Amino acid sequence: MPLPILSVAQMREWESATWATGQTEKTVIAAVGEHLAKRALALTRPGDVILVLAGKGHNGDDARAMLPGLVNRDARVINVEAPAAALPELTPALRRRPRLIVDALFGIGLNRNLDAAWIDFIERVNHSHLDVLAIDVPSGLDLETGRALPIAIRARVTVTIGAPKKGLLSPEAAEWVGQLEVASDVGLNPYPFHSDFQWTTPEDFATFPPRRAVDGHKGTFGHAAIVAGSLGYHGASILAARGAQRSRPGLITLFTSADVYSAVASQLQAVMVHPWVEGVDWSKFSAVLFGPGLAASNLPPPIRQTLLHLWREFRQPLVVDASALDWLQHGGEVSGFCRVIMPHPGEAARLLDCTVTDVQRDRVQALRALSRRFGDCWVVLKGQHTMIGRAEGDIFVNSSGNSGMAQGGTGDLLAGYVTGWLAQPTLQGDPLRALRYAVWEHSRAAERLTVTRENWTVEELAVALGPLHSS
Asked: Do the domain assignments include residue 197?
C-alpha cells in the first residue's frame, strides 16, 4: 500500500492515535532502532567507525536504540545537549574520519532558527564531507517548509519514520535530505485518516503487472504507435521505441520524419518504422505517443493537426511528451478517454505561463493546474520525486530514482515505456497504476545501474529497464 505524505501536525496526530490503542513509545523506538541499525550496517563495512550524534529528544532516543544492532562496527556516541559543550568531543571524532555519521540532533518539531552555537556545530559536520545518515529529518530543516533554519545537516541518506513528511519533498530540501527512505514498519498503527498525497512503495506492485496469459498472442497485448523523431533529434524516437519494447505490447509502429527515416529504421528490428504520411488509420492502435524528438522546424503541419484531432477523438490512451506538449490547446474535456502529458518543470512552466520557480514552489498545485488546463488529463510531472495525478483525487509521488537520470534521453525512454504499458488492453482499466508502475520501474533501473557503475548511459538504461524477474 502507498504511504501517506504528512505534515508535522498529521504525524503527531497519528502518533497520538497509536498511543491511545496501548502501543508504547518504547516499543516503537526499539523497532526504529533496529531498522536504523540495519541501514547503517548496509552503508558501512565490518570494523568501520560510526559516529552517532544523539540529541536530547526522541530523535536521540532512536539513535541510542540502534547501538545494540551495530555489530562488528566501532560505534561512538556523542550525547549533544548543548553544542558548545559537545565541540571538544566532536572535533577529534571528525578527525578520525568515521565511515558514517548518524544525525539525531533534532527531530520533526524544530521550527525556530538555530543560534550561532548550533550553526557552528552543524557547519563543522558538513565541512567534514563525511557520509551522514539522518534520522527522520536532517537536523536544522523546517519540515513544514523544507527550508534550512538557516543551515541543516547535509545527509547522504535520510530515513524518515512512519511516513514521508511534506517538507522533505520540497525542492529546497533536496540538498540536505539526500536519498529519502521511509521506515514504515516500526509498530505504528495503520494510518487512521485519509491523505490525498501518497508515497509509492514497492509493495504497491506486488501483483502488477498481472501474469501474461499463456495463450496470449500479439493482439492480446495491443499495438502501440509512436510519432517521434526529426532532423537532429532522431535518437529520441529510437529511445522511445526501445522503451515501448521493454513493456512488451504485441506490436509497435513508429512514424518518423522522412528525412531521418533511414537512420531510425536501420537501428530497430522488431519495431515497424514508417516515414510520416497523412491518412493513417489510427483506429488500429491501442495507444499512441506523440512528441519525443519532434523539435525540428521543418515538420509537416499535418502532424500537429493530427495530434489535436486525436486528443479530441481518439478512443484509446494518448500520451503527449516533449515538443508536442506545446501543440496542445487549452480547455476541452477528453470525454473519459485516457490522456497523459509528461512535462518536466521547464515544460510545465511554459504550459502554465509561469516560471520554473513557480512550478517547483508548489508542484502539487502545478500538477492540478495542468490537468485542469488540458481537460482533466493525467499528468506525470517529472523531476526529483516525479508526481502523478489529475485535477482532483490522489497524487502519487515516485520514491525511486537518482540524479544519474539527469541526462538527455531518459524522458524519451520513459514516454515509450509508459505508452507500451497503456497499449495493453488488460491494463487499460487502471491507467493510474500502469503510469505509476512505469515511472517507478524506470527509476528503479537507474538505481540498479548506479550500484555497478556511476557513468551509465541512457542506452544502458534502455537495456536495464524493467523488473529483473518477470511474472
From this structure: no
Domain finish residue from 135, 156, 191: 191
CATH number at residue 186: 3.40.50.10260
460 assigned to some structural domain: yes
CA dist., res. 209 & res. 60, Å (int) = 42
pLDDT reading at 469 higher than 80:
no
Full domain range(s) for residue 418: 218-464
Q: Is the domain of 181 the same as that of 234?
A: no
Q: What is the 3-state secondary structure (H, E, C) of 21-53?
A: CCCCHHHHHHHHHHHHHHHHHHCCCCCCEEEEE
Q: Which residues contact 80 (CB under 8 A, 6 or more apart)?
A: 53, 54, 55, 56, 60, 86, 105, 121
Q: Is the separation of the CB atoms in 258 and 302 below 8 Å?
A: no
Identify whether 201 is part of a domain. no
Does 452 lie in the same domain as 351?
yes
Reported pTM: 0.94
Separation between Cα atoms, residue 62 and residue 59, nearest integer Å: 5
Residue type, 454: E
Q: Which band of pLDDT confidence, cut at 50, 70 and 90, is reported for residue 471? A: very low
How far is residue 389 from each of residues 58, 328, 383, measured CA to CA in Å? 35, 19, 14
Domain shared by 307 and 166, yes or no: no
CA atoms within 13 A on the CB side of 51: 22
At residue 157, φ and ψ (nearest 5 deg) are -135, 135
For 141, the 3-state DSSP assignment is strand
pLDDT tens digits for 4-49? 999 999 999 999 999 999 999 999 999 999 999 999 999 999 999 9
CB atoms < 10 A from the CB of 70, how many? 21
Give the Cα separation of 371 and 364 in Å (integer).
11
Query: What is the enclosing helix (H) or strand (E) of 414?
Result: helix 410-422
Distance between CA atoms of residues 443 and 417, nearest Å = 12
- Give Cα 196 to chain centroid, integer Å: 17
